[in-house]
Specification:
single chain, alpha/beta, 6 strands
Length: about 290
């Protein structure tokens, strides 16, 4: 084959290649890799942890105990002292001990807002059954008013400034029988000052106060979730929790708080661990 013929063939293939192959991408500046922003699984599953006015049990936190009188119940000094020493402090000590199981040290600061010179009175009747009657948001409003504040927000800001405390957990105690509950953060009420209402006698335990009720409700303020629901929601979670965490304090309240457990999911929900238990990463847990 003549050299001129070979050259023609080579030129033909070069032209053919250039006609049918797009070489423009080779000369374009390289685009940076896209940044993929993902939400950590902890933020997706811990609905109320690190939210609301009570967000972290380990930080600068103080429990403010408020003995509240209403139109059908009242406190004397002996009863106030007995509640704090025999019930509240027992519950707080239990929480502190359980936190150490997860290598966590929680705050155990507390202060009574109802000393011998102070009486806080609710102008009405505190309903005994929150399931039947609903929670009473105005309880904290009346507490603030009794202490000379215009609103719970003003009270909260003032008390934090006076005590150099970052967060206050308000524990309101009523001297009669009832079903204790918490009024805590929800997306609809994100600015709500969080508090608990405790009854000195429980509807559930033959008129004996159960320290596990106090610990249970305090944990709610920091993100713990019920494994049961009195309104019949999430039946699959309750069924699964009975298998996985039969003695968890968020499932079963017991007369001796020291017999209650704080399982891996409850510890996760309140921030004592950042590891979502594998057994809870199942559809049944979230239905």
């Amino acid at each position: 084959m003549k050299r001129s013929t070979k050259v023609k063939i080579i030129v033909f293939f070069i032209v053919f290649f250039l006609c049918f192959v797009d070489l423009r991408p080779l000369f374009r500046p390289k685009k940076p890799e896209p940044t993929i922003i993902t939400t950590p699984i902890t933020d997706q599953t811990r609905k109320n942890h690190n939210k609301g006015s009570c967000y972290d049990m380990e930080s600068n936190l103080c429990y403010f105990v408020i003995h509240l009188d209403d139109k059908e119940s009242s406190w004397n000094e002996k009863e106030k002292t007995e509640f704090i020493e025999k019930k509240f402090l027992v519950s707080l000590d239990y929480l502190s001990q359980k936190a150490t199981d997860y290598s966590v040290t929680i705050s155990t600061q507390y202060k009574s807002l109802t000393d011998s010179d102070t009486k806080i009175i609710y102008d009405g009747i505190i309903e005994s059954d929150v399931v039947e009657n609903g929670s009473q948001e105005d309880i904290l409003n009346q507490v603030a008013s009794s202490l000379g504040y215009k609103s719970p927000e003003e009270m909260d800001a003032s008390l934090k400034k006076e005590t150099s405390i970052e967060q206050i957990a308000y524990l309101i105690i009523v001297n009669k029988e009832g079903r204790s509950y918490k009024y805590s953060y929800t997306p609809e009420n994100s600015k709500q000052i969080e508090f608990c209402v405790f009854f000195d006698d429980s509807l559930k335990f033959d008129n004996t106060t159960c320290c596990s009720t106090i610990a249970h409700e305090i944990l709610h303020l920091f993100g713990a979730e019920d494994f049961y629901n009195p309104y019949g929601e999430m039946p699959q979670r309750e069924k699964l929790a009975k298998e996985l965490y039969p003695n968890d304090i968020m499932l079963t309240l017991v007369n001796d708080v020291n017999n209650a457990k704080i399982g891996a999911y409850t510890a996760y929900a309140v921030g004592w661990t950042d590891t979502l238990p594998k057994e809870c990463n199942a559809p049944e847990w979230w239905e």
